[in-house]
Amino acid sequence: NKGNYEHYMQKEIHEQPESLKTTMRGRLIRGGSCKAKTVLLGGLKDHFKTIRRSRRIVFIGCGTSYNAALAARPILEELSGVPVTMEIASDLLDRQGPIYREDTAVFVSQSGETADTLQALEYALENGALCVGITNTVGSAIARHTHCGVHINAGAEIGVASTKAYTSQIVVMAMLALAIGGDTISSQTRREAIIDGLFDLPNKVREVLNLDQEMKDLAKLLIAEQSLLMFGRGYNYATALEGALKVKEVALMHSEGILAGEMKHGPLALVDENLPIIVIATRDSCFSKQQSVIQQLHARKGRVIVMCSKGEAVSVCPGGLGRVIEVPHVEDCLQPVINVVPLQLLAYHLTVLRGYNVDQPRNLAKSVTTQ
Ligand code: UD1
Ligand code: M6R
């Protein structure tokens, strides 16, 4: 049921404040007499000891689910102290890459039925790793075959382009990081800031959804482009990859997410007055590096569109050069949840304006059950 919406993708983008609430329901604990703030993940409680002792955590997934894990990687590294590596399921299988008994392998999948991810799970089980699932579908193959896991509880996702599952996956992995990380004195302020940020996240997502019309206007400007680049780094490298994946899969426009730190190692050669480039430069520890990326793009007459924190247009666009997308500022590790929303809206409007099928893009299936 699409309700008042024209497409499932549109509905699913706009219901993110609610789906995120459902994801966190009963899992975030605040208050009480000692004002303790904690995270409860029922599906993992008997396994945290093993996870903390593992030699590394390996995230495994495809497409959007891989991107969500990439977005959560920095906070998991920071809070858990365990090395975190990333594997695209098909690539792990192609290489028959190393997976050990001492590993915790985390399988991220909205459908829980993706063939590549499922086969990588079988491979990791054979190799003796602790296998954890992060899935949206209760009773799915991945939920059944993993040793333990967390359901993201985002509600059924119908549109082929994954939107609300992405933001719920990131939130679950941020909660996972909090749950694995010890409650040391030194990390207390940080942990509390993240938990407060999680509580407030649905409100902030509601706020960023107000950019709908602005994103539609931007889509009108970009409707006839051949290509669109997105530059991100740090917490928002994943945002660039995910924004580009959305644009290519539904709007059928070439789009590439690029790690901004790699700009001088090749992509800079593409820059001219015509190619649109979205640079994600919200306030975090990478901000000054992104400012210099923006300067270098301007120096080459690049057509730059900057995503920045609210009120910071002046510091990212000196002299009013280029367009800006201002988004609400949240705790750095949660910023990817906010930043992806305007890009989802942009992909959606580009698709409608270009006249393509939003919910059933050409050649794609919601659940990829063949290899
Ligand atoms: C569970 C109940 C929820 C109830 C809550 C009350 C289910 C599906 N969930 O939620 O309805 O309100 O207790 O305490 O009945 N699992 C995997 N692999 C996965 C995902 C999950 O093995 O990919 C396992 C978990 O380890 C767990 C079970 O499935 O044993 C349920 O997981 P989850 O729904 O996340 O647990 P709770 O949040 O505790
Ligand atoms: O169901 P899964 O999360 O395992 O699916 C993985 C990918 O097939 C999926 O995310 C795909 O990239 C989407 N169409 C992206 O919107």
Automatic annotation (TrEMBL):
Domain SIS: residue ranges: 47-186, 218-361
Keywords linked to the UniProt accession: Aminotransferase, Glutamine amidotransferase, Repeat, Transferase
Molecular function, one GO term: glutamine-fructose-6-phosphate transaminase (isomerizing) activity
Catalytically driven reaction(s): D-fructose 6-phosphate + L-glutamine = D-glucosamine 6-phosphate + L-glutamate
Biological pathway: Nucleotide-sugar biosynthesis; UDP-N-acetyl-alpha-D-glucosamine biosynthesis; alpha-D-glucosamine 6-phosphate from D-fructose 6-phosphate: step 1/1
Keyword ATP-binding: no
EC number: 2.6.1.16
GO terms for biological process, alphabetical: fructose 6-phosphate metabolic process; protein N-linked glycosylation; UDP-N-acetylglucosamine metabolic process
EC class (word): transferase
Protein name: glutamine--fructose-6-phosphate transaminase (isomerizing)
